[in-house]
Amino acid sequence: MLAYYFQLGLLSLRRNPALTALMVMAIGFGVAASMITWSVFRAVSGNPIPGKSAQLFTPQVDGWGPQQNLDGEPAEALAYTDAIALMQAHQAKRQTLLYPVQLSVMPGGQRDLPLNVNGYAVTADFFSMFEVPFRYGSGWSVRDDAARASDVVISSELNQKLFGGADSVGRTLGLGGHDYRIVGVASHWNPRPRFYDLFSTSGFADEPDIYMVFNRALDLHMYTNGRNSCRGQLSFTNWTDYTQSNCVWITPWVELDSPAEVASYRSFLANHAADQQRAGRFNWAANVRLRDVMQWLDHEHVVPPESRIALAVALGFFLICLVNTIGLLLAKFMRRAGEIGVRRALGATRGEIYAQYLVEAGTVGLAGGVLGLLLTALGVSGVGILFQPEIARLARLDVSLVGLTFVVAILATVLAAFYPAWRAAHVQPAWQLKSS
Question: What is the protein's membrane topology class (predicted)?
Fold first, then answer.
């Protein structure tokens, strides 16, 4: 019977083309507006590392004091002194420090000019903590960290530019006037949002080109290519003064597997801050934070407010479209009151009337879904009008969005048809036959 009702629904689409077109357009435009904004919201609000987001934490230590900090919150990164102290304490199973760097790849092969590359100075645990996938080779070891090795991991894209995609592990790469040994080629890996560096990026930057040994970058007095935030009157003119200042530029991450480890590390942070106070470096009470990935994303307000507003507006527009669809379906169904009366007089139950008209509404929803999918594909390509380019390019029409478009269109139309179908099912056969 459902197949038969579906055939009746298809015939009904052609019976009142103007009314049908209005309903299909209402559903199509409403669904498209919702799916376009949802594609953006989904991209910027997802969990970037779902398997480990609850085990990865970023420590914060207030090195500025209540007169200069951010509304009572510690700075979003660490000064050199605190970063090195946390690293040397080894209070977590895995830990890493990182900051952005920019270097030039020296000319070679068919390249006559240097090539600027962006990346990070990191420690060895970075790759295992964040589950960085490798196409060739691997990261370096903790011993290489201690030896301040000239090792580097490059991205697949940079490997393609420099070596045509071949296995380049073991080859030498000239960076910034120094030679480095390539130990690994990372597969495409660029979590969105880039949770591990929200201090220097918006979370949606392009994939890094290189990863180099943190201690090697320090030995070369390599200043950060990212954000650098300082407080008070500063007069440093060299690297030593810079590293002893209160400027924050290093982002720390630790991996903690249990609530007990989290509590222990939080106590360690508080004790570290208290030690700095006793040493005369701080003259305020300990003020520390320890947030996991999702808490950090929420604290940094990674989801753009315009994406939330756009989604709310689109859902409101979709609701208006559904209200209009209810009226159009009611008009469409009640125009066939005589037909309904005859069917009821011949023995059709109210349940069968419900089924027929809900399936017919689902047919309208299917047609609206097709239109909505076409409009969504067009809209996804033009979201740059509302959002920044680095966010707009995250919106994409994939299989899940296609499926969701049809499900929402059909389900919403069927729900909108319940009241019109109820009215149709309660048509009095005697009245209709008498009037006929």
Answer: Multi-pass membrane protein
